[in-house]
Amino acid sequence: MTNAKTYAALLRGINVSGRRKVPMAELRNLLEGLGHTDVRTYLQSGNAVFTTDSGAGEDGLGTALEDAIEERFGFRVDCLVRDGDYLAAVADACPFPAAELQGKQLHAVYYSGPADPERFAAIDRQAFLPEDFALGDRVLYLYTPEGLGNSRLGEAVSRPSVVKGLVATARNWNTVLKLIEMTRED
Q1: Residue 15 in contact with residue 26, Cβ under 8 Å?
Q2: Which Pfam families is this protein grouped with (predicted)?
Protein backbone atom coordinates (compact mmCIF):
# COMPACT_ATOMS: atom_id res chain seq x y z
CA MET A 1 0.00 0.00 0.00
CA THR A 2 1.66 3.18 -1.14
CA ASN A 3 -0.60 5.83 0.41
CA ALA A 4 -1.78 3.74 3.34
CA LYS A 5 -2.85 5.44 6.54
CA THR A 6 -3.74 3.97 9.89
CA TYR A 7 -7.05 4.92 11.47
CA ALA A 8 -9.00 4.25 14.62
CA ALA A 9 -12.72 3.49 14.40
CA LEU A 10 -14.67 4.62 17.46
CA LEU A 11 -18.08 2.96 17.61
CA ARG A 12 -20.76 4.62 19.68
CA GLY A 13 -23.23 2.84 21.91
CA ILE A 14 -22.52 -0.82 21.29
CA ASN A 15 -22.54 -3.70 23.73
CA VAL A 16 -20.61 -6.93 23.72
CA SER A 17 -23.78 -8.63 24.89
CA GLY A 18 -27.41 -7.65 24.83
CA ARG A 19 -29.39 -5.56 22.39
CA ARG A 20 -26.77 -3.86 20.23
CA LYS A 21 -24.17 -6.58 20.25
CA VAL A 22 -21.14 -6.20 17.99
CA PRO A 23 -18.51 -8.79 18.94
CA MET A 24 -14.98 -7.52 18.33
CA ALA A 25 -14.02 -10.60 16.26
CA GLU A 26 -16.90 -9.83 13.90
CA LEU A 27 -15.94 -6.15 13.80
CA ARG A 28 -12.43 -7.19 12.73
CA ASN A 29 -13.93 -9.42 10.02
CA LEU A 30 -16.13 -6.57 8.78
CA LEU A 31 -13.17 -4.21 8.54
CA GLU A 32 -11.12 -6.81 6.69
CA GLY A 33 -14.09 -7.41 4.38
CA LEU A 34 -14.03 -3.70 3.54
CA GLY A 35 -10.46 -4.18 2.31
CA HIS A 36 -8.60 -2.85 5.35
CA THR A 37 -5.46 -4.49 6.70
CA ASP A 38 -3.64 -4.76 10.02
CA VAL A 39 -7.04 -4.79 11.75
CA ARG A 40 -6.94 -4.90 15.54
CA THR A 41 -9.46 -4.15 18.27
CA TYR A 42 -8.94 -2.78 21.74
CA LEU A 43 -11.10 -3.78 24.65
CA GLN A 44 -14.63 -5.01 24.07
CA SER A 45 -16.19 -1.61 23.58
CA GLY A 46 -15.97 -0.63 19.95
CA ASN A 47 -12.40 0.49 19.37
CA ALA A 48 -10.68 -0.76 16.23
CA VAL A 49 -7.51 0.19 14.42
CA PHE A 50 -6.90 -0.54 10.74
CA THR A 51 -4.74 0.47 7.81
CA THR A 52 -6.11 1.39 4.39
CA ASP A 53 -5.19 3.16 1.20
CA SER A 54 -8.80 3.65 0.14
CA GLY A 55 -8.63 7.44 0.01
CA ALA A 56 -12.23 7.64 1.27
CA GLY A 57 -11.29 9.93 4.16
CA GLU A 58 -12.54 9.71 7.72
CA ASP A 59 -16.20 10.38 6.94
CA GLY A 60 -16.28 7.96 4.03
CA LEU A 61 -14.59 5.22 6.04
CA GLY A 62 -17.02 5.78 8.91
CA THR A 63 -20.07 5.62 6.64
CA ALA A 64 -18.82 2.43 4.97
CA LEU A 65 -18.37 0.81 8.39
CA GLU A 66 -21.80 1.98 9.56
CA ASP A 67 -23.35 0.48 6.41
CA ALA A 68 -21.49 -2.82 6.88
CA ILE A 69 -22.57 -3.08 10.53
CA GLU A 70 -26.18 -2.36 9.60
CA GLU A 71 -26.13 -4.98 6.85
CA ARG A 72 -24.52 -7.61 9.11
CA PHE A 73 -26.33 -6.94 12.42
CA GLY A 74 -29.57 -5.24 11.38
CA PHE A 75 -29.01 -1.99 13.28
CA ARG A 76 -27.01 1.15 12.61
CA VAL A 77 -24.10 2.18 14.82
CA ASP A 78 -22.52 5.62 14.65
CA CYS A 79 -18.81 5.29 13.83
CA LEU A 80 -16.27 8.07 14.05
CA VAL A 81 -13.03 7.35 12.22
CA ARG A 82 -9.92 9.36 13.02
CA ASP A 83 -6.40 8.96 11.68
CA GLY A 84 -3.45 8.36 13.97
CA ASP A 85 -2.03 11.85 13.45
CA TYR A 86 -5.29 13.43 14.57
CA LEU A 87 -5.43 11.25 17.69
CA ALA A 88 -1.85 12.22 18.57
CA ALA A 89 -2.63 15.91 17.98
CA VAL A 90 -5.61 15.64 20.36
CA ALA A 91 -3.37 14.20 23.07
CA ASP A 92 -0.65 16.79 22.45
CA ALA A 93 -3.16 19.65 22.71
CA CYS A 94 -4.72 18.46 25.97
CA PRO A 95 -4.93 21.45 28.32
CA PHE A 96 -5.15 19.28 31.44
CA PRO A 97 -2.13 17.67 33.18
CA ALA A 98 -2.85 14.22 31.70
CA ALA A 99 0.36 12.64 33.02
CA GLU A 100 -0.65 13.54 36.57
CA LEU A 101 -4.19 12.15 36.35
CA GLN A 102 -5.69 8.68 36.43
CA GLY A 103 -7.13 7.55 33.10
CA LYS A 104 -10.68 7.56 34.49
CA GLN A 105 -10.35 11.24 35.42
CA LEU A 106 -9.74 12.55 31.91
CA HIS A 107 -11.77 11.86 28.79
CA ALA A 108 -11.77 12.89 25.17
CA VAL A 109 -15.26 13.29 23.77
CA TYR A 110 -14.87 13.03 20.00
CA TYR A 111 -17.42 14.78 17.78
CA SER A 112 -18.41 14.32 14.16
CA GLY A 113 -18.00 18.06 13.60
CA PRO A 114 -16.56 21.17 15.20
CA ALA A 115 -16.97 21.62 18.94
CA ASP A 116 -18.21 25.20 18.60
CA PRO A 117 -17.97 27.19 21.85
CA GLU A 118 -21.51 28.52 21.32
CA ARG A 119 -22.90 25.04 21.99
CA PHE A 120 -21.45 25.08 25.49
CA ALA A 121 -21.93 28.75 26.38
CA ALA A 122 -25.00 28.12 28.55
CA ILE A 123 -23.16 25.67 30.81
CA ASP A 124 -22.22 27.33 34.11
CA ARG A 125 -18.77 25.80 34.49
CA GLN A 126 -18.34 27.24 37.99
CA ALA A 127 -21.32 25.20 39.18
CA PHE A 128 -19.51 21.95 38.34
CA LEU A 129 -16.06 22.62 39.81
CA PRO A 130 -13.70 20.89 40.31
CA GLU A 131 -14.92 19.22 37.11
CA ASP A 132 -14.04 21.15 33.99
CA PHE A 133 -13.86 20.94 30.22
CA ALA A 134 -11.97 22.50 27.35
CA LEU A 135 -12.69 22.47 23.65
CA GLY A 136 -10.41 21.39 20.86
CA ASP A 137 -10.77 20.51 17.19
CA ARG A 138 -13.78 18.13 17.04
CA VAL A 139 -13.07 17.14 20.63
CA LEU A 140 -14.01 18.11 24.15
CA TYR A 141 -11.54 17.40 26.95
CA LEU A 142 -13.44 16.46 30.07
CA TYR A 143 -11.84 16.42 33.52
CA THR A 144 -13.88 14.39 36.00
CA PRO A 145 -11.96 13.79 39.26
CA GLU A 146 -14.48 11.15 40.42
CA GLY A 147 -14.82 9.47 37.03
CA LEU A 148 -17.31 9.88 34.21
CA GLY A 149 -19.95 7.68 35.83
CA ASN A 150 -20.27 10.18 38.70
CA SER A 151 -19.93 13.31 36.60
CA ARG A 152 -22.67 15.93 36.57
CA LEU A 153 -20.65 17.96 34.06
CA GLY A 154 -20.42 14.92 31.78
CA GLU A 155 -24.22 14.83 31.73
CA ALA A 156 -24.42 18.58 31.05
CA VAL A 157 -22.06 18.54 28.05
CA SER A 158 -23.84 15.55 26.52
CA ARG A 159 -27.41 16.89 26.69
CA PRO A 160 -29.21 16.60 23.36
CA SER A 161 -29.65 20.39 23.23
CA VAL A 162 -25.85 20.80 23.42
CA VAL A 163 -24.75 18.11 20.98
CA LYS A 164 -27.71 18.35 18.60
CA GLY A 165 -26.67 17.32 15.11
CA LEU A 166 -23.36 15.80 16.20
CA VAL A 167 -22.28 12.26 16.83
CA ALA A 168 -20.33 12.14 20.09
CA THR A 169 -18.41 9.31 21.70
CA ALA A 170 -16.16 9.46 24.75
CA ARG A 171 -12.98 7.57 25.56
CA ASN A 172 -11.05 7.67 28.82
CA TRP A 173 -7.47 8.85 28.64
CA ASN A 174 -6.00 5.35 28.94
CA THR A 175 -7.93 4.37 25.81
CA VAL A 176 -6.92 7.59 24.03
CA LEU A 177 -3.25 6.78 24.62
CA LYS A 178 -3.63 3.11 23.70
CA LEU A 179 -5.31 3.96 20.39
CA ILE A 180 -2.48 6.37 19.58
CA GLU A 181 0.03 3.63 20.36
CA MET A 182 -1.87 1.15 18.18
CA THR A 183 -1.99 3.55 15.22
CA ARG A 184 1.79 3.95 15.48
CA GLU A 185 2.56 0.21 15.45
CA ASP A 186 3.86 -1.21 12.20
Answers
A1: no
A2: DUF1697
